[in-house]
Design brief:
The protein is an alpha/beta fold and about 270 residues long. It has eleven helices and eleven strands.
């Protein structure tokens, strides 16, 4: 077993702590993941793992020892730290004693487009990390090409966002644009129809053709999609709600529409 790291002044420990800050995550193009499931998923997905950190807490978690043996038999850089130090760098209430620092690459529209059946999600000023993570996970589950995040959104590499993706951050391409309107211009240039959710829409999502190429825009939890984005959209849609609820949570609303797109596409096949 490697010598245990116990000092908070260790360079690696300082780097992990720095990844709590958005500026450092984007400068270093890295983020961290925590827990047995997340680290296993990063390994299975061939993510660019810079190094892995573990403590004795891992041996008290089901599957922890088996995961450590798998890591030790591979070529990953592995570091052994004290439980006390692990709790200092952990973002969870009940740490499992394993954490990995992962490099990321942002994609471009050209990287993700297919010859047909393009299905893209664009997030306009989405603020809640749980919502963003859930939307990324749902987009992954329902076969989206990729997720576009824009300036004004919560950081996609925020630890809470990463945790909410439940590993889907390693499966689906992430794109970044300064503004939603800039992203819309690129989408339209590629022949992608832009569909936006709006409570003022006249068409219901079940009446829209989602088989053809489209990008779905999901807006801010409180104010919805911006007026500028609505003006640039090709089509506005809403979800029929015969009950008394005024609106749906952004992640739930996007899930309903994404499922409808999947349903239509599978019915065609």
């Amino acid at each position: 077993m490697n010598e245990m790291i116990t000092s908070s002044s260790n360079i690696m420990i300082k780097e992990i702590k720095s990844l709590y800050r958005k500026k450092d995550r984007w400068t270093k193009k890295s983020f961290f993941i925590e827990g047995i499931r997340a680290v296993e998923e990063s390994i299975l997905s061939n993510a660019k793992i810079s190094y892995i950190v573990y403590s004795d807490m891992l041996f008290h978690i089901k599957g922890g020892e088996e995961l450590l043996k798998k890591i030790q038999s591979s070529n990953y850089k592995l570091n052994y730290i004290s439980d006390k130090l692990f709790k200092e760098i952990s973002d969870t209430e009940k740490p499992q004693g394993i954490l990995a620092v992962v490099e990321y690459d942002l994609k471009t529209i050209d990287n993700i487009l297919k010859e047909k059946d393009n299905f893209i999600i664009l997030l306009d000023r989405l603020q809640d990390p749980g919502n963003m993570g859930t939307i990324i996970r749902t987009a992954d589950a329902f076969g989206s090409n990729g997720v576009i995040v824009t300036e004004g959104c919560v950081d996609v590499f925020n630890p809470k966002t990463i945790r909410s993706t439940m590993g889907s951050i390693f499966h689906i391409p992430i794109l970044y644009y300064k503004s939603s309107n800039e992203a819309i211009r690129d989408l339209k240039d590629k022949g992608i129809r832009v569909v936006t959710t709006s409570l003022d829409a006249k068409e219901f999502c079940f009446d829209v053709d989602f088989i053809r190429d489209f990008a779905l825009i999901i807006g801010n939890e409180a104010s919805g999609v911006s007026e500028e984005v609505i003006a640039d959209s090709d089509l506005l849609i809403k979800i029929p709600m015969p009950g008394n609820a005024e609106s749906l949570n952004a992640a739930i609303a996007s899930s309903v529409i994404m499922y409808e797109a999947l349903r239509q596409r599978q019915s065609r096949d």
